[in-house]
Amino acid sequence: MQAVRLHGPRDLRVNEVELPSLGDREAMVKVAFSAICGSDKRWYTVGTHVMPLTLGHEFSGIVEEVKDSRHQDLVGHRVGVMPLMPCGHCTYCLNGLPNLCTGYSYLGSRRDGGFAQYAAVPVQNLVPLPDSIDLADAAIMVDPVSVALHALRQGGYRTGMRVTVIGGGAVGLSVFLWLHFAFNENAVTVVDRVPEKVAFAKSLGGDAFTDSDPLLKELDSQMELVVLATPAPEAISTALELVARRGTIVMPGIPYKTISVEAMTWEKLLRKEARLIGSWNYAWTDYPENECQTTLRYLAAGTLKPTMIVTHRFTFDQAKEAFNTAFNNNKAEVVMFAASEVTG
Ligand SMILES: [Zn+2]
Ligand SMILES: [Zn+2]
Q1: Ramachandran angles phi, psi of 82, nearest 5°
Q2: Residues 123, 234 within the same domain
Q3: Residues 121 and 183 in one domain
Q4: Residues with CB under 5 A from ligand 2 (ion)
Q5: Residue 296 lies in a domain
Q6: CA of 342 to the centre of ligand 1 (A)
C-alpha cells in the first residue's frame, strides 16, 4: 500500500509498504480522508519519536477487519479515529484524564498513522459514525474540532461571553465554528497576522482583524475569554492586551519558539488578575464529558460542518505538494488527503 512516511527531519517520502499488522483488539481501517495538522509541520521539521514513521493523526475510514471477537460488528462500519492512545493505568488515566496520560502512545507521531491507504487502530480509538456524518467531516472531528471544544471548556466558556480567538488556523477556526454555529454567538472576533486568514474567517461570518489593525485597540481589555490558538510566540502579548480584568486566556496552540513578553505587558496578567490556562487534546471519558461524543452529536445534527475549513485536497502521491501547501500557502486552512477512489 501507499504510505506517506517521515524518514528524518524534512525527509518525507511516499513509500510502497506492507499492510500494517494488527495487534490484539486492533482494527484495520481503510483510510478515506486524512488531514495535515500543525503538529505534522513540527514533526516534519524536527522529526518524530521513531522514524521512519507514517504520519497522520486526523483521519477517518472504513473498518475492514477487527482482531477482537467481541467487536466483529464493527467490520464495514464507517469510523472516525481518536489518535491518542493513553496507557490506561497511570494516575491521570485512572482519574478520567487520559489526555494528561504520562505514558501514552499516539497514532501518527509515535506509531504509524493515517497518511496511508490502511492504518491499524485500537478498537477503543474508533468512533463509529452515524450515516448522517460524512467521512471527510469525520476526519477532522476529533482533532481539531474536539480539541477546540476542550479549549473552550478549559477556558470556562459560558453563553454570551465576549470571546476573541487569536490564530486563524485549524484549531482557531474550529473554536470559531463551535461558537458561531453551535453556540450561536454572533460577536466572536478572530485575530491573525496573515490577511488571507483574516479574510477566510470573515467568509465564515466572523469579525476578523489582523493583529496590526487599529480597530483591535477598541477591544483592549474587553475580552472575557481569549483563545490563543497559534504557534506565533508574539501572540501572548496580544492576548494580554485583549483580555478583560478577571478574564481568561486559554492556550490550545503549541508554540514552536521561545515566548518572550515585555515586562510591562506581562504585568497586565497581574493587574487584570487574568487567568492563563493550558489546554491539551480532548477528554474522552464518560465523566465528566466525552468531548468526542459531544462533537459527534453536533455533527450528526448538522449544526457543525468541519469541512467548511477544508481548503485543499490531495492524493497521497502528491504528499510533498500537500505539505508545501499546508505550510507555505497563506490561503490554506485544513489540507486533506483523500483516498483516490473518493476524490473528484
Ligand atoms: Zn492535529
Ligand atoms: Zn495513562
Answers
A1: -95, 120
A2: no
A3: no
A4: 86-87, 90, 93, 101
A5: no
A6: 22
Do 125 and 175 sit in the same domain of this protein?
Answer: no
- The mean pLDDT of 119-143, rounded to a whole number, is 96
**232-284 confidence digits (pLDDT tens):** 888 999 999 999 999 999 999 888 889 999 999 999 999 999 999 999 999 87
Strand 2-8 relative to strand 53-54: parallel, antiparallel, unpaired? Answer: antiparallel
Give the chain's mean pLDDT: 95
Cβ proximity of 148 and 281 under 8 Å: no
Task: Mention every residue, 6+ apart, whose C-beta is less than 8 A from residue 284.
Answer: 82, 84, 98, 99, 146, 290, 291, 292, 293
The answer to whether residues 95 and 211 belong to one domain is no
What is the per-residue pLDDT for 343? 42
39 Cα: distance to centroid of ligand 2 (angstroms): 21
Nearest ligand to the CA of 99 is 2
Which among 103, 166, 83, 140 is positioned nearest to 335, based on CA atoms? 140
Look up the CATH number of the domain holding residue 37: 3.90.180.10
Number of domains the chain is built from: 2
The DSSP secondary structure of 19-84, one letter per residue, reads PPPP-TTEEEEEEEEEEE-HHHHHHHHH--SSSSEE---EEEEEEEEES-GGGGGGTT-EEEE--E
Residue 11 shares a structural domain with residue 90 = yes
Q: Are residues 150 and 130 in the same domain?
A: no
Q: Which residue has the cell 449544526?
A: 303
Q: Which domain holds residue 40?
A: 2-139+305-342
pLDDT computed for residue 341 by the predictor: 61
- Residue 286 in this model has a pLDDT that exceeds 90: no
